[in-house]
Amino acid sequence: MENGFVKTTLANGLRIVTNTMPHTRSVTVGAYVGVGSRYEPDEQAGLSHFIEHLAFKGTERRPTPGEISGQVEGVGGVMNAGTEQELTVYWCKVARLHLTETVDLLIDMLRNSLYTSEDLEKERLVLLEELAMANDHPGSRADVIIDEMLWPDHPLGREVGGTEQSVVGITRDMVVDHVSQFYTPNSIVISVAGNVEHDELVDLIDDLTDGWSSGAPSAWDPYTDSHNAPELRVEYRKTEQAHLSIGLPGLSLTHPDIYALDLLSVALGEGMSSRLFLEVRERLGLAYDVGSSVAHFQDCGAVVITAGVDPKRTYEAAATILGELSRIRDGVPEEELEKAKRMSIGRLFLGMEDTRSVSGWMGSQESLLGTVLDVDDVVSHVERVTPADVQRVADELIAGEKLNMAVVGPNRGGSRLRGLLERSVRRSAPIVAAGTG
Fold this sequence. Notes:
CATH topology of the largest domain: Cytochrome Bc1 Complex, Chain A, domain 1
Strand content: 15-25%
Structural class: alpha+beta
Mean pLDDT: 94
């Protein structure tokens, strides 16, 4: 028993974590593979994502895509996968009585996918269309640009799906070598939440993974922050809105101030009662959607604010957002911090009622941290955060020289926005949201 969750490590290194939720009729099975886009060299960018798609095309026992998806969808279940910077995740949510065949299916996909040349060529076209679709969406494009600015010349700064050039260049040999290196039991966590018995599940998975040998995956490429000046990038697009993204370096998954930063983000821009929403949308009517979020990786992180605005009011919106960033450096009062805590804890508790959320909680943490955090311990950490903690973190991270701004829309130039960023370096200089453009 580990922090309320049960964990077993098989002889081949595969980890199994479970949480028994006897009140549920569903069960979620997740397979967390310890590889993502930051493990890829530039010429193989998008390879992990490519493999995630190919795993659904067929195995020796289930040679067609319909036999894979149909097994889950045919019983009313949901099946999906996703590739991130540090993980590739496959998951199924089904009724409890279909647990055994679902576990069998996922392990079959991980161990025995065919990766045929024919499937590779067909899926290559699909992936190129996916990249084109994301590029056509100005909000997605702004997200990509801000990542490039936050992590320049580093895999974290690339689109997870790669580039058109890299996807065109991926070969079957690359796919097979990547799977052989990373899809090994000691790099995989099977996370199951629902009305399950841990020991029975361990016996089942032990049988299904018999003969599967462990490997020696390579490590990810570390990142060292080198920001020393604010940066602006404006990309012209003939759109109805200008999509604005502002990013700052954040904190890693294991940093002791992670809870203070998360609460700062909640107060700043998460939800309809946050500072950004009330100021940018409710008071000034500058945007329909505005908000902040945080990303935490194993050695670094980010704070990102996004908004879609009238192009003629881009400067006003940017000045307002930067003004709120400047204001929050002065601290979050106790009452506002308590509201952020209640919101964070409430979201956490609600998520723990859903098998999908619980499976994700266990699988991602075991994969990236080597342990599963106890929910009550996390709540205690959140409750112990003080206004002084939040102000200290804000003062350290919200530095003008680390600001990055990306604008995608019918805007040209950007001299006024650049001047706005440069003034933000001088903390004492007031930021005035005046004028248009």
